[in-house]
Amino acid sequence: MAFQTSFDDHEEADHGLMAEINIIPLVDVMLVLLIIFMVAAPLSYSGIDVNLPKTSLKPVSSDTKNEPIVVSISESGEYYLKKKQIPFVQLGKVLLEKFTSERSKDVIIRADKDVVYAKVVGVMNVAKGAGAQKISLIMESEDIHSRNVDTSK
Q: Are residues 55 and 140 in contact, defined by beta-carbon separation less than 8 angstroms?
């Protein structure tokens, strides 16, 4: 977008002043910000650090309209909703309150790979009893080609 102004003085009119809005630096900055947010968004999960078990299965697509409730089980067997520790005896009550206050009735369980299986099943039973419609387990993907497995037999 350019325009020219007219002047009464003949000297300034000879120079032909032009005013332009240069949006290229703005576009560059916006693209850089977009890339930063695209990279940082998956890393912004708030919760405790859990050493997830590995699997060679492909991830399942999820319903992104409703945010699921994430229950984490640490290596020492403690239960968390986000970063808040919750005793197991109160987990059902807390999940029931969450189901009534939020639209989602989906539960995701993030358990450390060294957690006793009975603790994971216990959370599944409590979640189902509280009214969970869908219960999922989170695992880290494993590169199937990097394993030393003899598949020729």
A: yes
